[in-house]
């Protein structure tokens, strides 16, 4: 879906007065007047409309983003990580070939699987592992799977490897987050975003010329916006919050593969 900003009166709703006593008035059209609602919005609304490109993916493992998976990482977006992300191994055992792991994954990063949510069922392989995991090595929402049984690959390849064995070793990576503040002006933010229907974050899939690149050059393709102005909410609500004139973004870095 695309959000677009339009201005100006409709053709059917515009009118022009012409003086019958002054011929010059007929040759000088009057400029269009803003509606009272639009004047009020420009005076009192703290938010501005922003064209934000979005592509909605499906769940739990997202086939609709296949074209995005095929894109190579943007060259300009290579940023030195301030610190190495936390990484650990987890061994998960399933009781059946079709048994779920107890997580929802998305494939919006090219070479890793993002853990979007965890099931409440305490009997799932993930929940069973977490019960005995050492401190800081439990699987959490926001973690990435970067290897399956020691093998790296595309997000789709990793998702297929998860179901080749009844016992699977996954490499979990937990990148750090950072905070940026952006003040809106006349320029667009300059980014394309992707999200899943029930997600609570926005994945940056492209950065163009705009305010984000100028004021927060660290933000790049593959990073995920977790909250806007201190609000953790649905992806669609985050999109609405991005229209505000002042933005404080909490962003999760991409995994290092």
UniProtKB/TrEMBL annotation:
InterPro entries: PDZ (IPR001478), PDZ_sf (IPR036034). Residues 1-17, 23-38 have a biased composition (Low complexity). It comes from the Eukaryota. Residues 99-176, 187-255 form the PDZ domain. Residues 1-38 are annotated as: Disordered. This is PDZ domain-containing protein. The lineage of its organism: Eukaryota, Sar, Alveolata, Dinophyceae, Peridiniales.
């Amino acid at each position: 879906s695309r959000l677009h900003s339009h201005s100006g009166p409709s053709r059917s709703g515009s009118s022009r007065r012409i003086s019958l006593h002054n011929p010059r008035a007929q040759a000088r059209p009057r400029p269009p007047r803003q509606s009272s609602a639009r004047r009020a919005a420009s005076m009192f609304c703290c938010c501005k409309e922003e064209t934000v490109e979005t592509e909605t993916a499906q769940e739990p493992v997202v086939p609709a983003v296949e074209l995005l998976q095929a894109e190579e990482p943007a060259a300009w977006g290579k940023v030195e990580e301030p610190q190495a992300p936390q990484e650990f191994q987890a061994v998960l055992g399933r009781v059946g070939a079709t048994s779920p792991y107890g997580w929802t994954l998305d494939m919006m990063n090219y070479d890793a699987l993002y853990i979007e949510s965890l099931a409440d069922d305490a009997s799932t392989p993930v929940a069973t592992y977490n019960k005995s995991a050492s401190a800081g090595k439990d699987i959490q929402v926001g973690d990435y799977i970067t290897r399956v049984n020691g093998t790296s690959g595309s997000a789709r390849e990793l998702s297929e490897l998860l179901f080749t064995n009844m016992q699977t070793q996954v490499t979990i990576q937990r990148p750090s987050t950072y905070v940026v503040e952006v003040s809106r002006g006349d320029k667009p933010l300059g980014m394309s975003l992707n999200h899943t229907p029930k997600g609570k974050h926005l994945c940056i899939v492209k950065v163009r010329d705009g305010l984000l690149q100028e004021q927060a050059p660290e933000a790049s393709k593959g990073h995920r916006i977790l909250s806007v102005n201190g609000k953790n909410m649905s992806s669609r609500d985050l999109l609405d919050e991005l229209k505000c004139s002042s933005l404080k973004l909490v962003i999760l870095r991409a995994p290092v593969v």
